[in-house]
Design goal:
mainly alpha, Bromodomain-like, 4 helices, 2 strands
């Protein structure tokens, strides 16, 4: 794939990923009634602003958009990766990380391993990969006025 296509389609794809993650988290909490734990809230704090940031970057065709997105997505990888490992029992019992809401509860368990933190981790990894590709592509393409 050439650099111009990455720039043209990468940012809208990142917006779709972030928007899907936000609407998915809102569905699980507001419609399905799952109460988010503390780590879920941290992941939301990192994901929710990305919809607005990426949308503005898309409208403005901001070449440094990846510099705004990558800190959120990379930290999000760490938080959601840690949360998923808690659910798997790798770090032992998480206990209640908020009153009455333990971080190791699996509200959903699709195919025996797909949980909400894994979905968030996937979204953060996708956003990081897309933004790294866009950052690379902007370095390769000569911007014409």
């Amino acid at each position: 794939m050439n650099s111009e296509k990455i720039i043209r389609y990468g940012v809208p794809l990142a917006l779709l990923v972030a928007f899907t993650a936000v609407t998915g988290s809102l569905y699980y909490s507001e419609i399905a009634g799952f109460v988010p734990c503390r780590l879920c809230w941290y992941q939301r704090v990192l994901m929710y602003p990305l919809v607005i940031i990426i949308l503005i970057g898309l409208i403005e065709q901001d070449e440094i958009l990846p510099n705004y997105v990558l800190p959120f997505s990379i930290i999000g990888i760490g938080v959601s990766g840690y949360h998923y490992m808690l659910q798997l029992g790798i770090f032992g019992n998480a206990g209640a990380c908020a009153i009455g809401v333990p971080c190791n509860v699996r509200y959903v368990n699709y195919a025996g391993f797909i949980t909400i933190p894994l979905m968030a981790l996937t979204a953060f990894i996708l956003l990081t990969g897309i933004m790294l590709a866009v950052k690379w592509a902007y370095g390769k393409v000569e911007i014409r006025d």
